[in-house]
Amino acid sequence: MNPKITDWKGKRVWLVGASSGIGAALAHQLAGRGARLALSARNADKLQALNVTDALILPCDATASDSLAAARDRMLACYAPGSGGDAREMASPLQAALAELAGRAQEGIDTTGRLLSVLRSKGAKDAKDLVARLMRLDEDTRILGELHEVCKPIVLTARFERDNLEGADPKLLAETTLRIYRDMLAQTRLLQKKLEAIVREWTHPGV
Q1: Which of 59, 151, 61, 158 lies closest to 101, judged by CA?
Q2: DSSP codes joined into one string, 51-78
Q3: Edge-first strand listing for the sheet containing 56-57
Q4: In the predicted model, what is the mean pLDDT of residues 95-107?
Q5: pLDDT tens digits along 162-202
Q6: Is the domain of 154 the same as that of 185?
Q7: Residue 37 in contact with residue 19, Cβ under 8 Å?
Q8: Which residues pair with 57 in a beta bridge?
Q9: Beta strands in 97-186 (DSSP E)
């Protein structure tokens, strides 16, 4: 008799016949307990409709040995070390770094927006505080770029533009800074989408 499994977190499970009924219910139960699932059934659309996060979708006909064997081989290939089956796990730190960079960019947008409002109302003290906050944000962002290669090109581009700001008009400088942070956020979100597309292609090949 097989030992009872009480902790499913990180366990890899292949469910055949998972598109409906008991199989679908079991998929949701196991996903909720942290299992890493491969889901098979004839209908790929129904498997996708289950919306089981990070599941590997392997359409096949369980009554046809060739189809089942092909799905098995695909699953084993995807889960082999370095094959890309663990793409989401490998991408996780990259996604976390990009999420942090997006947060920094949004903070820059918000802070610079407030700075512009203050400059228009001539609140010198508040403007000084906001400029100091932006300087700290610039340094935090620089460190983030040094720590995470995935962030470095975006950070270096933004820093180059910030370091080469010209002119003495504080409002013009703030408006340019706001544009730089908006560009940083747009580039980061684009890279996040590209990374997610790569992960999706690896975890749901051909679907």
Answers
A1: 151
A2: --TTPEE----TTSHHHHHHHHHHHHHH
A3: 12-16, 36-40, 56-57
A4: 92
A5: 888 776 688 888 999 999 999 999 999 999 888 888 777 66
A6: yes
A7: no
A8: 39
A9: none
The Cα–Cα gap between 64 and 72 comes to 12
Tokens representing 39? 């889901």
Give the pair of three-digit tokens for residue 23.
């199989």
Half-sphere exposure of residue 194: CA atoms within 13 angstroms, side-chain side: 9
pLDDT of residue 88: 65
**Is residue 118 domain-shared with residue 185, that is, in the same domain?**
yes
CA-based torsion, 182, 183, 188, 193: positive or negative: positive
Residue 147 phi, psi (nearest 5): -80, -30
Domain that holds residue 16: 12-79
- For position 110, what pLDDT does the model report? 95
- Its pTM stands at 0.59
- Could you give the CA distance from residue 194 to residue 202 in angstroms, rounded to a whole number? 13
Here the CATH number for the domain that contains residue 68 is 3.40.50.720
Are 115 and 130 a contacting pair, CB within 8 Å? yes
Question: Worst-scoring range by mean pLDDT, 104-118, 130-144, 160-174?
Answer: 160-174
